[in-house]
Design goal:
alpha+beta; Beta-Lactamase; Alpha-Beta Plaits; 4 domains; eleven-stranded mixed sheet; 23 helices
C-alpha cells in the first residue's frame, strides 16, 4: 500500500516515553513486514498465518531477540480493509518496565490504532471530496469555455469551430490526445501536447472504419482499453491506446461521428470525470455540427456553404473552381397539393441522388426552400456545365410518387466559374442564380453558364441587386411616402385635399431613388405585396397622426395596389383589417389599380373591389386606355374614377388623335357616372385643353410636384390655420 497520508506517529511517541521513561519507536507495517512508505523488510516477530479478524483493534506482546519490549495492535486500512500492524518498541526496557506499565500500554496502543484508522478514513473521504470538487471545477471551466466557442461559432467555418473546441479542451484534459472523427464528412482532426505519439494516424484510421465503435457509442460513451473487437486480443492490442469514445449526432439522431480521448497504455485508467468531459465535448460538437446543417436534408446550410465559398473565392492558387446552383421546377405545386411533409421527402430524395452522383468530397448545400448549391474545387466552368447537365438528366429520372400520383421532377441550373474579381460568396452565388433565372424564364429544365458580358444577365443581376436592397430597406425602414396633389380642374391651383401616395427609397447619402429603378425588380421577384403593405400602413399612420393632432381631417388619398397584391388573398384581408383598425374613415381612401392588372385576373379584381367598396373605400382604374379592349370590360368593374393613361395627355396640345381619344373616353365615363382624371399634366397649355374637354381632375408637375407626404399636408394645414 502506498503512503497516501502522513500518519504523524511521532506525536504518540512522546506519550509512551513519558509513561515508560524509556526511548520508544512506533511504526506501521503491512502483513509482509514492510513498514508503510518504506521498501525495507522488517520482521515483526509474529507468524504470518494469523487470524487477523480476531486481532482487529487488539494488542499483543511479541517476542524480541534483542531484549526489547514489543507490543503490536492489529488494524485495517483502506477501501479494501488491508491488515496492518501498529508496532511499539521500547529499547532497553525489559528489565525496568513494570507489569502495571505494560498493562497500561496495551489499551493505549489499541486506542491509537483506532484513531489512525479513523484519521485515515476521514482523510481519504476529504481527499476524495477535494479531488471531486477540483474535477467539477475543471468541468465548470471547460463548460464555460466550450459555451463561449458555441456562442461565437457562427463567426467561424465548420473546421475552425471544431479546432477551437479541441484546442480549448486540451487545457482542461489530462489525456495524451483528443480527436474528432466524422467519416461521412471526411473530417479527422486531432490535438495533442505530445507530437511523438506512436501509430496515431493508423489508430484514427482504424477507428474511422470501425462500425462497432460507432454502434456501441450510440447513446453513451464507452471506454476501450484495447482493441477488443479484433481477433487475438490476448496479444499486443492493435490499438495501442486506452480510449474513451462519445458520439456526435446527426439531426435525425443517427451517429455522424465520434469524439475520442486517447491515453498511452501505461497511463492510469480513466475516471468518471474523464468520461463526463468526453460526453460534454461530444455534445458541444454535436451542437455545432447540427447548427451548420440543414435540418431536412443534413446538407450544409446556406451560411456554412457561403463560408466555404468565401474561402474558395479568395484562394489565390491559380486553379479553376466552379459553383452549380439549381432549384426544383414547380416544387411549390408539391407543397400545395400534398403538403410540406411530402415536399420534405422529395428534398431528401434529391439529396440522396446528389450524394450518389457526386460523392462525399463535393461540398453540397441546401440553400433554402428548393434551392441547392454544389461547390466544385479544381473544376473549370466548362466541366461544371457538363456535370450540371448530367444532374439535370438524373433529376428527370426521379419519379416522385405520392398518393398514387406521379410527379415528374426537373431543375433549372445555373453554373458560374469563380472569377478572381468575385471577392465574396454573394457575388458568385448571385451570378449562378442569375443564370438559373434565365433558364426558368425560357421554360425551365435546363442549364446555363454565367457570362458576365451577356446584357440579359447584366439586367437580371441588377434586378437581383435591387430585390435584395428592397428587402433590407423594408427591414431598416428606408422607404418614404411622398404625396402629389390631384386637384379639380374647376380650381386646378387651389388648395388641394386629395393626394396620390408615391413611394420613394432613400439612399444612405440622403438622395432619393425613383420607383422606376426598383419597382421592376420588385415585380420580377414578387416583392410588390410587401411594398404595398408598407405604403398602406405608413399612409394610415400619417393620417392618424394628423387627425390626433387636430390639424385637419379633410385629407383623402389614393394608394396604388399592384397586380401581385390584387390576386393575393392574404393581402385583401390585410387591407380590410388595417383600414378598419386605423380609425380613418374608409371613404377617405381611394385604391388605384391598373387596367392591365385588372384585366389579367378579372375575377380577383372584382372580389377585391367589391369587398373594399362594401366598407366604404373608393376605386380608380389607373392607366386607362392602354389595353386593347378597355371599353369591353369597363362596365363590369365598379370603379369610381378613370385615370387616363399619360401617353394620351402629354402630347394632347399638338396631337389631334390624342385629343379625340381623350374626349371619347371622357364622354363614355360620363355616361357611366364615372369621374375622369388626367395624368401627366405638365404645363398650363395641357391644363387648358383637358379643362376644355371637361376632364374632372388633373395631376402632374404643372399642378403639383411630389414631396414628402407629412410635410405636404402639415404645410397645408398651417396655411389654413393662418
Amino acid at each position: 500500500m502506498d503512503k497516501l497520508i502522513d500518519f504523524d506517529l511521532d506525536r504518540y511517541v512522546s506519550l509512551f516515553e513519558h509513561l515508560t521513561g524509556q526511548e520508544c519507536k512506533l511504526g506501521l507495517f503491512d502483513q509482509k513486514g514492510n513498514e508503510l512508505g518504506e521498501s525495507v523488510e522488517v520482521e515483526i516477530g509474529v507468524s504470518r498465518e494469523i487470524d487477523w479478524d480476531s486481532l482487529c483493534y487488539k494488542a499483543q506482546k511479541m517476542q524480541s531477540e534483542k531484549g526489547e519490549v514489543v507490543w503490536a495492535a492489529a488494524l485495517f486500512l483502506g477501501a479494501e480493509d488491508q491488515p496492518f500492524w501498529l508496532k511499539l518498541t521500547l529499547t532497553e526496557a525489559s528489565k525496568t518496565l513494570t507489569t502495571t506499565i505494560e498493562e497500561l500500554l496495551k489499551p493505549i496502543l489499541v486506542d491509537i490504532a483506532h484513531y489512525i484508522a479513523v484519521d485515515y478514513t476521514n482523510h481519504t473521504s476529504i481527499s476524495g471530496l477535494s479531488n471531486e470538487l477540483a474535477s467539477r471545477y475543471e468541468e465548470i471551466n471547460m463548460v464555460y469555455g466550450l459555451d463561449d466557442i458555441w456562442v461565437n461559432s457562427h463567426q467561424y467555418d465548420e473546421i475552425k469551430s471544431y479546432n477551437e473546441l479541441l484546442n480549448m479542451s486540451m487545457e482542461f484534459l489530462s489525456v495524451d490526445l483528443v480527436a474528432l472523427l466524422i467519416p461521412g464528412e471526411d473530417i479527422r482532426l486531432r490535438h495533442s501536447l505530445d507530437e511523438d505519439l506512436p501509430e496515431v494516424e493508423e489508430t484514427l484510421e482504424r477507428l474511422s472504419k470501425n462500425p462497432v465503435i460507432f454502434h456501441e457509442s450510440a447513446h453513451k460513451s464507452i471506454v476501450v482499453n484495447r482493441d477488443s473487437y479484433s481477433e487475438n486480443t490476448h496479444h499486443e492490442p492493435l490499438i495501442p491506446y486506452k480510449l474513451i469514445v462519445s458520439s456526435v449526432m446527426n439531426i435525425d439522431n443517427s451517429i455522424a461521428g465520434i469524439v475520442v480521448f486517447a491515453n498511452k497504455m501505461d497511463r492510469e485508467h480513466y475516471t468518471n470525470t474523464d468520461r463526463r468531459l468526453c460526453e460534454l465535448l461530444a455534445r458541444e460538437t454535436t451542437k455545432i455540427f447540427q447548427s451548420k446543417r440543414d435540418p431536412i436534408t443534413g446538407l450544409l446550410n446556406r451560411s456554412s456553404f457561403e463560408s466555404k465559398l468565401d474561402e474558395l473565392a479568395t484562394r489565390d492558387d491559380g486553379a479553376y473552381h466552379s459553383l452549380i446552383y439549381f432549384d426544383l421546377d414547380r416544387f411549390q405545386v408539391i407543397n400545395d397539393t400534398w403538403g410540406h411533409s411530402e415536399g420534405d421527402r422529395l428534398l431528401r430524395q434529391v439529396t440522396a441522388l446528389l450524394r450518389s452522383k457526386l460523392g462525399k468530397d463535393i461540398t453540397l448545400s441546401r440553400l433554402g426552400g428548393d434551392e441547392f448549391g454544389i461547390l466544385l474545387e479544381d473544376t473549370s466552368g466548362q466541366v461544371a456545365e457538363g456535370i450540371a447537365e448530367g444532374l439535370r438528366r438524373a433529376l428527370q429520372e426521379i419519379s416522385f410518387i405520392s398518393n398514387d400520383q406521379i410527379f415528374e421532377i426537373s431543375g433549372s441550373f445555373g453554373v458560374v466559374e469563380i472569377d478572381p474579381d468575385m471577392e465574396v460568396a454573394i457575388d458568385v452565388l448571385s451570378a449562378a442564380i442569375v443564370a438559373s433565372s434565365i433558364v426558368k424564364e425560357r421554360g425551365k429544365n435546363g442549364v446555363k453558364i454565367y457570362q458576365p458580358t451577356d446584357t440579359e444577365m447584366a439586367e437580371h443581376r441588377d434586378q437581383m441587386y435591387w430585390a435584395s436592397r428592397i428587402k433590407n430597406s423594408l427591414k431598416e425602414d428606408l422607404f418614404e411616402i411622398f404625396g402629389q396633389a390631384i386637384t379639380p380642374l374647376s380650381d386646378p391651383y387651389g388648395e388641394a385635399s386629395h393626394y396620390e401616395i408615391l413611394v420613394r427609397l432613400r439612399e444612405e447619402n440622403g438622395d432619393m431613388v425613383a420607383p422606376g429603378r426598383f419597382i421592376p425588380a420588385a415585380e420580377r421577384y414578387n416583392l410588390m405585396p410587401l411594398i404595398d403593405r408598407w405604403v398602406l400602413a405608413e399612409t394610415l399612420s400619417v393620417l392618424s397622426d394628423v387627425k390626433e393632432s387636430h390639424l385637419t381631417d379633410d385629407i383623402s388619398v389614393s394608394v396604388n395596389i399592384s397586380g401581385q397584391s390584387l390576386t393575393d388573398e392574404g393581402f385583401l384581408k390585410y387591407v380590410v383589417s388595417t383600414i378598419l383598425d386605423s380609425e380613418i374613415e374608409p371613404e377617405r381612401i381611394c385604391l388605384e389599380i391598373t387596367e392591365t392588372s385588372a384585366v389579367s385576373d378579372l375575377a380577383s379584381a372584382l372580389k377585391f373591389i367589391e369587398t373594399l367598396k362594401n366598407i366604404g373605400c373608393r376605386f380608380a382604374l389607373d392607366d386607362f386606355g392602354s389595353g386593347m379592349s378597355s371599353f369591353g370590360y369597363l362596365k363590369n368593374l365598379p370603379v369610381d374614377y378613370l385615370k387616363l393613361d399619360g401617353i394620351f395627355i402629354q402630347n394632347i396640345v399638338d396631337d389631334t388623335v390624342d385629343r379625340i381619344m381623350v374626349n371619347s373616353i371622357h364622354h363614355i365615363a360620363q355616361a357611366m357616372g364615372l369621374k375622369t382624371i388626367a395624368e401627366f399634366v405638365e404645363n398650363d397649355a395641357i391644363v387648358d385643353v383637358v379643362s376644355e374637354i371637361g376632364i374632372d381632375y388633373a395631376q402632374g408637375y404643372g399642378i403639383d410636384k411630389p414631396s414628402p407626404f407629412m410635410e405636404k399636408i402639415t404645410g397645408k394645414t398651417q396655411v389654413l390655420m393662418a
